[in-house]
Amino acid sequence: MTWHPDIPLEYRNQIVTGDARELAKRIPDESIDLIFTDPVYDRIEDYEWLAETAARVLKPDSACLAFFGIGYLDDTLQALKHGLTYRWQGLWYQSNRIGSHADMGFCLYSPFFWMEKGRSKRIKQTQDVANVPFTSGTNGKFHNWNKQPAVIMKYLDAFLIDGGIVLDPFTGGATVPAVCKILGRNYIAFEIDPDTADLARERVLNTQPSLFVPEPEQLDMI
Questions:
Q1: 95 pLDDT band (50/70/90 cuts)?
Q2: Burial class (CB in 10 A: 0-12, 13-18, 19+), 95
Q3: DSSP code string of 108-164
Q4: What value does the mean pLDDT take over residues 48-57?
Q5: Residues 64-70, mean pLDDT to the nearest whole number
Q6: Which of 19, 33, 35, 106 sits in a 20 to 30 Å window from 59, CA-based?
Q7: Do residues 116 and 64 make contact, with C-beta atoms less than 8 angstroms apart?
Q8: Which domains are seen in the chain, by residue range?
Q9: For residues 62 and 158, what is the distance between their CA atoms, to the nearest angstrom?
Q10: Is the model's pLDDT at 143 over the cut of 60?
Q11: What's the pTM?
Q12: In whole angstroms, how large is the CA radius of gyration of the chain?
């Protein structure tokens, strides 16, 4: 796989500071293999923008994986249908989670939508549930709402081919770029907050490429 020639050099395997709405305008049509991201859940307009942008920049028959808040399920799905089609739902199950932040009390899972442009497919078979323990120290080290690296790896490895390009327009603490570096995948990542972006770049800089796919407990180190 090669980069589309019109993708800016400063975007390639970099975390770019700025508003994704403006930065994404420089991404050529049909130049991205996968979108994998974790927006702020109550900003439904971000999901609508994400869907419209995905419909433009994704290659035909490609997927967009987007985490969402359980309490915003219906609104999020309707927003993502502005350009994309619903395919499936997956989730990160956290059997060891202790704490309460939802109306139902203890929330033990974090879901994502598998949306698609055309008819996407997994490169490798995988389950729709990632049963990965929650590790609070790692999870909040770079950003309050980071996803566990093992969760991101599970689905990146299943949806993104070797040399493929993933876009994460709301990268936060850069779990997606860090895992891309381990797997040898290409990425474009945007982060609007300068301080968070600096921490994210530091994280990726200190992440080492791997000669093998690490076990989940090894991923807690990144």
A1: confident
A2: exposed
A3: -EEEEEEEEESS---SS---SEEE----HHHHTTS-TTPPPHHHHHHHHHHH--TT-
A4: 98
A5: 96
A6: 19
A7: yes
A8: 9-210 (3.40.50.150)
A9: 12
A10: no
A11: 0.89
A12: 16
